[in-house]
Amino acid sequence: MLDIFFxxxxxxxxxxxxAFGFSLxxxxxxxxxxxxxxxxxxxxxxxxxxxSAGTPIVLAALAAAATTGLLGMLIQRLFIDRVFNMxxxxxxxxxxxxxxxxxxxxxxxxxxxERLLRLDVPGxxxxxxxxxxxxxxxxxxxxxxxxxxxxxxAVLNYTSFGRAVRACRDSRQSAxxxxxxxxxxxxxxxxxxxxxxGLAGAxxxxxxxxxxxMHFMWTIEAFLVVIIGGLGSMGGALVGGFLYGVLNFAAxxxxxxxxxxxxxxxxxxxxxxxxxxxxxxxTVVRK
Amino acid sequence: xxxxxARSAAMVPALHGAAGHETGRRIVVILxxxxxxxxxxxxxxxxxxxxxxxxxxNIALASSWNIIGGVAGYPSFGHGAFFGIxxxxxAMLIIRADLPFVVAIVGGGVVAxxxxxxxxxxxxxxxxxxxxSTLAAQMAVETIVRxxxxxxxxxxxDMGWNFPDLGSLTFFYYLMxxxxxxxxxxxxxxxxxxxxxxxxxxxxxxxxAASVGVPATHYKSVAFVFSAIWPGVMGAAYGPFLVYISPDxxxxxxxxxxxxxxxxxxGIGTVTGPILGGLVLSAIDQIAWSNFLExxxxxxxxxxxxxxxxxxxxxxxxxxxxxxKRK
Lengths: 287, 327
Known about the structure:
Chain A has 287 residues and is an all-alpha fold. Chain A has helices at residues 2-28, 36-52, 57-83, 88-110, 136-158, 160-170, 172-177, 182-204, 215-229, 234-254, 259-273, and strands at 126-129, 132-135. In chain A, a hairpin with a 2-residue loop joins strand 1 and strand 2 (132-135). Chain B has helices spanning 5-9, 20-39, 46-71, 80-96, 101-117, 127-147, 149-152, 169-192, 194-204, 206-211, 216-242, 247-250, 253-266, 272-291, 296-310, 314-326; strands at 161-162, 244-245.
C-alpha cells in the first residue's frame, strides 16, 4: 500500500512532464492534440536508437527532445495551422491522422518491438527509503522531471516570450492587437510541447516498455493528467501528474486486467463532474 | 474568450434547408443507388461482392454517425462501441441462446440503443470534451468486453466468438443492402421531421435554439439513440458474415474513425455525403489494401490529413461549387 503511493508519486513527475506540453497547447492554441503521444514514443525511440549506437544517454535524450521539438513545429506549420480555427472535430481527426503517419514511419524506421533500457546509476543502483527499496534511476527521473518542469515554468513566467505565450492563452485577439506575433508564438509553443514530451519519452524508456504503436495510450494519459490537475496552470499539471501516477499504479496493482477501464472510467467521471480539473483556474477552452 | 463563430463556420455551409422537394430528391437518389447495387451480384465475382458488403456497412455506419456528429454537431468518438455491442449481442443470442438470426439483428439494435442511454450524461460536455469522453467510454466498454468471461467467449479460454454458417454470400449481400436501404430511408425521414430541423438549429447556435423553446437535451438524446441503433443492427448482421469476431475487429478504433472520415470526406451534415464518401473511400481503401499492403496504414493516415487540411467541406461541397459555377 505504502509503496503504491510512493512509486506512484515518483512516476507522477514524469507523467506531469509528459503532459505539460499538452496542457500548454490546449491553453494557448485551444486544441486537443491527438498527436501528442507521438512525441513521447518518438522521443523514446530516438533515444534508444542513439543510445544503442553508442551515444551517451544524456546526449541521446537531448537529441531526442530536439527532434520531437522540431517535429512539433513542423506539424504546427504544415497541418494544425490550417485547421485550429475550425470545428473541434476537424482538429481531432487531423491530428489523429498525423499521429498515424508519424507512428507508422517510426515503425518502419525503428521497428515495432517494445524497447526498455536498463539504466542504473553506477555504484548506487538502489536507495533504501524507510522500508522501500527504490532504484536510483527512478529518483533521477523524478529530479530531472521536476527541474525541467521548473525551467519551463520559469520561461513562461519571467521571459518576454513567456509573457507573449500567456497573453495568447488569455486572449488571442488582445494579444494580436498589442502586436504579438501570434503565429510565431503558436509555432514555438508546439516546439516546446514537442521537446518536453520527447524528453519525457526519453526518461520513460528506462521505466516501462515503449514502442511507436503505443502513442495513443500516452495521448489519453496526458489528457487525463491535464484534466485531473486542471487547465491553465503548470502547477495543476504537476499535481495531476502525481495523482494520476498513484491512480495508475493502484489500478494496475489491484485490478491488473481491467486497469484501462478503471482509468478511462476515472477520465469520464472527471470530465462530467469537474471538467475544469481539481485545481483548475476555470475552463480556458470553451468549445 | 467568447464563442467564436468562425469555429463552426466550416461546417455550416454544408447544412442547407430540407424543403419538401429536397426530401423527394434524396429518396430518388437513394432508390437509384439501391437499384444499381441490387443488380451488381450478377455482374461481379465473389471477391467484389465481399468488397461491396464492406462498403454497405461503412455507408450505413457513417450515415448514422453523421446524424449526431454532423447534423447535431456533437463529434462522438465512441460510436465504434455500438457496432461492437451489436456484434457481441448477436454472437451471444445466436451462439449462447440459440435464437434465430432475425432476433439477433433486432436484438443488436435494441441493446445498442439501450446502451446509448448510458452515454446521455456525456451531453453535458461539448466539442473536445464530448469527443474525448465518448472515446474514453468506448475504450472502457472494449476493456470490459475483452476481460469479462461472460462476454469474452463461450469457453473459458476463448478470446472471441465463432458463428455457425448462416447463409451464402448472396444472402448476406442482399441482407446488408436491405438494411442499408432501411437505414438511409430512416435517415431521410428523420431529417425531414421535427427532429432534423431541431438538430440543425442546435448545431447553428444551441443557446439561441434553446431560448426559443427547442428542448435541446431531448432532441440530442433522440439523435444519439437513433445514431446508436443502426450501428448496433449493422454489427449484429455483420458478425455472422465475418464468422469470427473479437474486440480487435469489431471494437477497433478504426471503426469509429471510418465513420467520421467517410462523413467528412463525402460532406459532413448532408444526407448524400456519407454515401458518396463511403463509395469513394472504400474504393481507395481497396486499392491501397491490394497493392500496398505494407503501407496501408500510412496511406490511410495521409488520406485523413490531406482531406481535413485541404478539403474540409468534402466531396458534396466540391460538387455543389461546380454546379453553382455552371449555372
